[in-house]
Design goal:
Layout: H1 3-14, H2 22-33, H3 37-47, H4 50-57, H5 65-82, H6 90-137, H7 143-150, H8 154-171, H9 184-187
């Protein structure tokens, strides 16, 4: 299901739930402060519509809509725990908290994405350098030789190899019955 369709379906399902009015929010907050769990449940349910409204603003940010909805719902529940009861507009308070959580989530998603691309670039560079070395020297490079070629410490090259090999292993479910790929960490670098 496409992200836009998922969001539309989620909004359609929420349309079955009556949103809380400002007056109802204020009454329920007072009851929740007294320990009324039913009031807390109704506050969550009656304010869930806030989350997809805000998620819609961030469509196309690169973060999956389903993850943003989940993050927004968690932020909504946390905001209800943090609300003081002195707010005259609880819905605005909740919206600010949800928006802030989504912006932080999207920022972190971007950082993770950049790190993944950097690792992918380094893995591709390592593959190319390894191939070139084997062609030129007619043997497999040692870890120290690869580290020197990459201009990185051996432990960083080893980490790139370990992560790359793990990704290849996961991609090769071995359902073809073929022998697994050579593991340079287990089998050595031709030393």
């Amino acid at each position: 299901m496409k992200e836009t369709e998922y969001l539309k379906l989620y909004i359609d399902e929420l349309s079955q739930i009556r949103p809380c009015s400002t007056e109802e929010n204020l009454t329920l907050l007072g009851r929740m402060a007294s320990g009324d769990d039913d009031a807390r449940s109704r506050l969550i349910e009656g304010n869930l519509h806030i989350v997809p409204e805000i998620v819609t603003e961030y469509e196309g940010s690169g973060a999956p809509v389903s993850d943003m909805l989940q993050e927004g719902n968690m932020a909504l529940m946390e905001a209800l725990e943090a609300i003081s009861g002195k707010e005259t507009d609880p819905e605005s308070f909740l919206a600010v908290r949800v928006r802030g959580a989504l912006e932080e989530f999207i920022r972190l998603e971007g950082v993770e994405s950049l790190a993944a691309h950097k690792l992918e670039d380094e893995a591709n560079r390592l593959i190319n350098l390894t191939r070139d070395f084997e062609t030129e020297h007619e043997r497999t490079a040692t870890l120290s030789e690869l580290a020197q070629l990459m201009g990185l410490p051996e432990d960083e090259v080893e980490n790139i190899m370990r992560i790359s090999y793990s990704a290849i292993s996961l991609g090769d479910s071995n359902s073809t019955g073929q022998k697994p790929a050579k593991d340079p960490l287990r089998d050595g670098w031709g030393e």
